[in-house]
Amino acid sequence: xxxxxxxxxxxxxxxxxxxxxxxxxxxxxxxxxxxxxxxxxxxxxxxxxxxxxxxxxxxxxxxxxxxxxxxxxxxxxxxxxxxxxxxxxxxxxxxxxxxxxxxxxxxxxxxxxxxxxxxxxxxxxxxxxxxxxxxxxxxxxxxxxxxxxxxxxxxxxxxxxxxxxxxxxxxxxxxxxxxxxxxxxxxxxxxxxxxxxxxxxxxxxxxxxxxxxxxxxxxxxxxxxxxxxxxxxxxxxxxxxxxxxxxxxxxxxxxxxxxxxxxxxxxxxxxxxxxxxxxxxxxxxxxxxxxxxxxxxxxxxxxxxxxxxxxxxxxxxxxxxxxxxxxxxxxxxxxxxxxxxxxxxxxxxx
Length: 350
Prior knowledge:
Elements: H1 22-25, E1 28-31, E2 35-38, E3 43-48, E4 51-60, E5 63-68, E6 74-79, E7 88-93, E8 100-105, E9 111-112, E10 125-129, E11 135-141, E12 155-159, E13 166-171, E14 181-188, E15 191-196, E16 205-206, H2 213-230, E17 234-237, E18 243-244, E19 252-255, E20 260-263, E21 283-290, E22 294-296
Parallel strand pairs: 7-13
Antiparallel strand pairs: 1-2, 2-3, 3-4, 4-5, 5-14, 6-13, 6-21, 7-10, 8-9, 8-11, 11-12, 12-22, 14-15, 15-16, 17-18, 17-21, 19-20, 20-21
């Protein structure tokens, strides 16, 4: 029978003491294809199919208390795009996950981002807004399992005082894996087993012996630590919104008039990315994170949502589904297509 673990003292628990020898004693990987990795610095990694969640944990008596690194419900990154003479261009990231999402652009009515029965998502989802966007608001109805569902500030309003016209809107979906949970470590005949209040079932996760798989986990931890230290509210993306590391001065030149970073070997490598334009790092734009002007609880029942920005379905009606039209079609003989070696992407904080 699965051990019953209490959340009663999560909020009032004391700060973790990294001098506690249990941080080193219990550090390691619990589970195989899914499970938890404990690091001796008080951080953890919850992993599984399509799941990577970092956070912190602490000991209190015989229990371990876990708290995920919570991201903002929404993030907005903005750029002044000199190629856009009117209107605004918006890339929507993550709005298909974690509840029903809505948006209000300028003086337009509140609209769902996707249709109610949307499926077959094929990013990027780029929307062209005809008018100026001096302000905009995003909202979400969180999934039922969310503990903060009743009182969450799920409507975020922004003011575009600087006149940006190229945006990346990001929605960080609320997931079960982001909820706080509790665990205990038990000694069994097979070894140490971690039993969690939310995952792992009755058997829990068995602590693994050191193997090569841990190297992958450590690499992910190093990347996580690096990203936390370098986060500065700025990202770089190409015209199709693929994210890349910050352009190095030795490899890129900056054009003030175009507000654009161009690779010094862009012309030389132009043919390399004709058939893989999404991964083309030749021209990069800098996007600055914007702070919300106000936050409040989203009340969709008090509004009359209009038609969704994007429509996408599988099967019947698929011919009307949204498809990104930003790629240029080049007719190149197959034997002339060069081999591609795309640059490593930078992860968007999600």
